[in-house]
């Protein structure tokens, strides 16, 4: 006699491998789409120079029209924020290539008078 009934399954539960695959895919997606650094307050095109090494430190932005930004602050509030930061950490100036050299020199003199130590200018190789 033939039995057409359903076979009893063993006591094993369902596989969780498909769920683990989905979790890893989501993790990879979020890691790839996340921003690792805050966005620049405005677009700058660094000047060209020969040589140089990558610079690391707190970043001060200077636009072509002379606008300053440090973190979320702009204008004169930047200097108050810079006064409270550690002067041993290099201050990286990301200035637009359209900024006049005299304006950059005035900014560097004001920062030096405020006690800011090492100043670094971001440039791109020629």
Q: Can you tell me about this structure?
A:
The protein has about 130 residues and is of the alpha/beta class. It has a domain at about 55-125: Nucleotidyltransferase, domain 5 (2-Layer Sandwich). Helices cover about 30% and strands about 15% of the residues. It contains three helices and seven strands; from the N terminus they run H-E-E-E-E-H-E-H-E-E. The protein has helices at about 15-35, 75-85, 100-115; strands at about 50, 60, 70, 75, 90-95, 120, 125. The strands form two sheets. A five-stranded mixed β-sheet has the order 4-3-2-5-6, covered by helices on one side. The mean pLDDT is about 85.
Structure summary:
This protein is an alpha/beta fold and 126 residues long.
Secondary-structure blueprint:
Elements: H1 17-33, E1 48-49, E2 58-62, E3 68-70, E4 73-74, H2 77-83, E5 91-95, H3 101-113, E6 119-121, E7 124-125
Parallel strand pairs: 1-7, 2-5, 5-6
Antiparallel strand pairs: 2-3, 3-4
Structure keywords:
Nucleotidyltransferase, domain 5; alpha/beta; elongated; 7 strands; two-stranded parallel sheet; 126 residues; 3 helices
Structural class category? alpha/beta
Shape: elongated
Query: Which class of the domain at 53-125 in CATH terms?
Result: Alpha Beta
The CATH topology of the domain at 53-125 is: Nucleotidyltransferase, domain 5
Question: Can you count the beta strands?
Answer: 7
* Sequence of secondary-structure elements: HEEEEHEHEE
Radius of gyration: 28 Å
Percentage of residues in strands: 15-25%
* Overall CATH architecture of the domain at 53-125: 2-Layer Sandwich
Order of strands across the main sheet: 4-3-2-5-6
Biggest sheet architecture: 5 strands, mixed
Through-space gap between termini? 88 Å
Mean of pLDDT: 84
Low-confidence stretches: none
Task: List the total number of helices.
Answer: 3
The helix fraction, in percent, is 25-40%
